[in-house]
Amino acid sequence: MPRPPRRKAAASDPEADPLPPPVSPTAPVSSGEEEDAFEATLRPQSFKDFVGQSRVVENLRVYVKAALKRGEAIDHVLLSGPPGLGKTTLARIVANELGVEYHGTSAPALKKPGDLVGLLTSLPPRTVLFIDEIHRLSPVLEEYLYSAMEDFFIDLTVDQGASARPIRFQLQPFTLVGATTRDGLLSRPFQDRFGIPQKLSFYNVEELARIVARSAKILGIETGGEAADEIAARARKTPRIANRLLRRLRDWAEVEGDGTLTLAIARKGLEREGVDESGLDAMDRRILQALAQHGGQPLGVKTIAAMVGEEPDTVEEVYEPFLIQEGFILKTSRGRMLGGRGYEHIGLKAPKLPQAEEEGLF
Ligand code: ADP
Question: 85 C-alpha to center of ligand 1: Å?
Fold first, then answer.
């Protein structure tokens, strides 16, 4: 649904809405209901509208079609990849395409076996149950899920001591779609129970430009193709970030111009948001600086996180994947090091380190 148009205001208008303070577009969690509503507005509802990830989409299309033919629930799906690449969106699309209910939750919200049993017994047949951050599920709950996933029942022990007894809860067939930013943290037996594991990869600039153009259309933002390309080039190859940047730049277009998002306004807004030409934000640059500080010696994630004032998990799950893929950071057996592109980015020359040469890093 398009957002209602805002009152147009010139920058000098004393009553103009002030621009919101810059927010890191890489912020790992949604920053509230407004953000959730914004994302929901832009979510593609069908495979047809989902841009990119062609191999994953093709595979899911086939499994959905086969399940529809047989009138069964599709096998459990594990979607892995960095945040903002479309895991939740795909889970919803699978439910839409199957014409079944969708229920979304996240592993940290499931604390006790009772939470899981309560949830699973309430699902209508063939529901797509989406569990985000599934690598954070406790081992106890993971074990309860095994029989639920394989044979659609859970044995829960009630009471304690001498009166303890198992009660069997029979479940309706369902499809678990697990999402994880860290598939390496999932135990092997758990991974093996997902018949359809799919890895999402970063998007290319052309795909992101299509996503930005689509989002601009939905939001009713006038934008020249050049502005969409500029956002696409600086969005860390991630649709969520592209959409967030578009949203921020809409504010700039309204306050600084006549509402049309031109290339000049996009560039100015991006600069003021602290997003540089490579798409890195202030935290990315702090991470690169931290790595440069120790003469290029390898550092562990915890050390980096302490130096930049961020949680280690956030550094590892949100910031690093892009920085590593693009060669800003190198992941070595001894820790993280600045890559050639990282040195270049902060205007330093890569030092000649014996171990770097040994490992063929530069
Ligand atoms: P994840 O669950 O992987 O963190 P989401 O599915 O929540 O990511 O996607 C984040 C946002 O990016 C959503 O608002 C969605 O609209 C948008 N998005 C993600 N992938 C695509 C895509 N392939 N095409 C269009 N929009 C997308």
Answer: 5
User: Ligand 1, closest atom to CA 91?
Assistant: 6
- Cα 39 to middle of ligand 1, angstroms: 8
Same domain (yes/no): 250, 154: no
Residue 2 has pLDDT above 50, yes or no: no
27 in Cβ contact with 248 (< 8 Å) = no
Average of per-residue pLDDT across 337-344: 92
Is the C-alpha dihedral spanning 146, 97, 214, 1 positive or negative?
negative
d(CA 233, CA 342): 18
Both 191 and 213 in one domain: the answer is no
End residue of a domain, out of 251, 272, 293: 272
Given the residues 89, 175, 181, 238, select the one marked as catalytic: 181
Question: Would you say residue 236 has pLDDT above 50?
Answer: yes
Does 87 qualify as catalytic in the annotation? yes
Residue 117 has pLDDT above 90, yes or no: yes
Could you confirm whether 260 is annotated as catalytic?
no
- pLDDT exceeds 90 at position 69: yes
Q: Same structural domain for residues 149 and 246?
A: no
